[in-house]
Write a structure and sequence with these properties.
single chain, 369 residues, alpha/beta, OB fold (Dihydrolipoamide Acetyltransferase, E2P), Rossmann fold, Ribonucleotide Reductase Protein R1, domain 1, 3 domains, six-stranded mixed β-sheet, five-stranded antiparallel β-sheet, 13 helices, globular, binds guanosine-5'-triphosphate, binds zinc ion, RsgA_GTPase_dom
C-alpha cells in the first residue's frame, strides 16, 4: 500500500501501531508491501460518510462504498466518520475487517443513546458568533465535550464584523477566562482573521466544527476552501457548490503548509440544538479546573460546596476569585452527568464496541491473521 498517500489524509504511525498489536505478520506485510499479489487483498480506508444503507470511504485510490458485515451493525454504534478501517477484498468490493482503534472519538447523548459524532480528530473548532448567540455556558459545555474526547479545543468567534471593536474586546476578555488558550476572532464575510487558522490546517490534520445553527460554520469553511483551487472536491455530494450541513460528512480541503499533496479532513456538524453529555466528569473537571482544584482541597472529600465547613469553593466564591455563573454551570453539568450515570446511559456503546473489538481479535487469531 502507498502509506504516504494515506498520510496526507490523516494516517499516522499511531494507527499502524494499533494494527501491529492485532494483526499477524502476513497481514502487516500486506499493508507494507507494494507487491501486487498481496496489495490487492487488503486496503485501508477512512470513513467519510455513513448512510443508512451504505458507508462511504476514501483510500489510496479514491472514494468508494464499503461492505459492512453484520458484526458492525447497527453501524452508528461502531463506526463514525473519520474512523480508519482495514478492509479485505470480497470479489469486486472491499469489506470491513477491522476498525482501527481511534486516537479520539467525539460522542454525545442523543435521545438517551450515545451517538458517535466523529473519530480521529486533532482539533474541535468551537464556533460562536459575536452577537446574541454568544453564551459562555454553552462554550463550557463544548469544552467539556472536547476534553472528554481528548481533542484540542479551539474557540472561533465568528462575524466579528457585526460588532464594535469595544464589544469584540469584551467578548474576547470573556473567552480568555475560559480554560482554552486557543481563541480566534474572524469574519468570513470580510475575510479577516482567517490566516490565524493556518496552524491547524496542516497536512493530515482532522478538524470538527461544532456550534449552534447559524453561527457561521459553513461560511467559515467556504471562506477557507474558497481560496483554493480544488473546491469541487471539497463539496462531496452537492454540485451546486454549496456545502449543505444536513448530514455528518467528512470532506477535505487543501492544507496550507506548502505540501502540495496535503489535505485537511473537516467535519461540519449540523447545528446542535442541545448537546447532552455523559461520562463527562473528566471533561467537566478540566473545563472548570480552577473550581476542581479548590474542591479537591475542601475539608470533606464529598463536599457539596453548600453549607459544609472548610469549603474552599465557597470561600473562593465569597472572595470573588471564581464566578458564581461558572460555579452554577459546573454544578449543573455534574448533575447532568450524575443523572446519566444513574440511568446507566452512556456505557452501552463503549461496552458493545469493546465486545466487538475483542471478538474480532479472537476471530483473527483463529484465522491466523
Ligand atoms: N455578517 C456576517 N454574517 C455571516 C458571517 N459568516 C456567516 N454569516 C451569515 O450567517 C448566516 C449563517 O451562516 P452559516 O455559515 O450557514 O451557519 P452555520 O453555522 O453553518 O449553520 P448550520 O449549517 O445551520 O449549522 C448566513 O446568513 C451567513 O451569511 C460573517 O462573517 N459575517
Ligand atoms: Zn466544598
Amino acid at each position: 500500500m502507498n502509506l504516504s498517500k494515506l498520510q496526507s489524509i490523516g494516517w499516522t504511525h499511531y494507527f499502524m501501531q494499533q494494527l501491529s498489536v492485532q494483526l499477524s505478520f502476513e497481514a502487516l506485510s500486506a499493508i507494507h508491501d507494494t507487491d501486487a499479489q498481496t496489495v490487492n487483498q487488503y486496503a485501508l480506508f477512512r470513513i467519510t460518510a455513513i448512510h443508512r444503507d451504505r458507508i462511504q470511504a476514501i483510500g489510496e485510490s479514491g472514494s468508494t462504498d464499503l461492505m459492512c458485515p453484520p458484526e458492525f451493525h447497527p453501524t452508528s454504534q461502531y463506526i463514525a466518520v473519520g474512523d480508519w478501517v482495514l478492509t479485505e477484498k470480497a470479489e469486486e468490493h472491499w469489506r470491513i475487517k477491522q476498525i482501527v482503534e481511534p486516537i479520539s472519538r467525539l460522542l454525545r447523548l442523543s435521545g438517551e443513546k450515545p451517538q458517535m459524532i466523529a473519530s480521529n480528530l486533532n482539533y474541535l473548532w468551537i464556533v460562536t458568533s459575536a452577537n446574541q448567540d454568544f453564551n459562555v455556558k454553552r462554550l463550557q459545555r463544548y469544552l467539556t465535550l472536547a476534553f472528554d474526547a481528548g481533542i484540542e479545543p479551539v474557540i472561533i468567534l465568528t462575524k466579528s464584523d457585526l460588532c464594535s471593536e469595544t464589544q469584540l474586546g469584551e467578548y474576547l476578555v470573556q473567552l480568555t477566562q475560559l480554560n482554552c488558550s486557543l481563541v480566534h476572532a474572524i469574519s468570513a464575510h470580510q475575510n479577516t482573521g482567517l490566516t490565524d487558522l493556518a496552524p491547524y490546517l496542516h497536512a493530515g490534520s482532522s478538524i470538527a466544527l461544532v456550534g449552534s445553527s447559524g453561527v457561521g460554520k459553513s461560511s467559515l469553511l467556504n471562506a477557507l476552501a474558497g481560496t483554493q483551487q480544488h473546491v469541487a472536491s471539497v463539496r462531496g455530494d452537492d454540485d451546486k457548490g454549496k456545502h449543505t450541513t444536513t448530514a455528518r460528512q467528512l470532506f477535505f480541503i487543501n492544507s496550507v503548509d506548502g505540501n502540495p499533496e496535503g489535505q485537511v479532513a473537516v467535519i461540519d456538524t449540523p447545528g446542535m440544538r442541545e448537546l447532552q453529555l455523559f461520562n463527562s466528569e473528566h471533561g467537566i473537571n478540566e473545563t472548570f479546573s480552577d473550581i476542581h482544584t479548590l474542591a479537591l482541597n475542601c475539608r470533606f472529600s464529598d463536599c457539596h460546596h453548600a453549607e459544609e465547613p472548610g469549603c474552599k469553593v465557597r470561600q473562593a466564591l465569597e472572595a470573588g476569585t471564581i464566578k458564581t455563573s461558572d460555579f452554577e454551570n459546573y454544578l449543573k453539568l455534574l448533575r447532568e452527568d450524575e443523572y446519566a450515570k444513574r440511568r446507566g446511559l452512556g456505557n452501552h456503546e463503549e461496552r458493545k464496541y469493546q465486545r466487538a473489538f475483542s471478538k474480532m481479535v479472537k476471530t483473527m487469531k483463529k484465522e491466523n491473521w
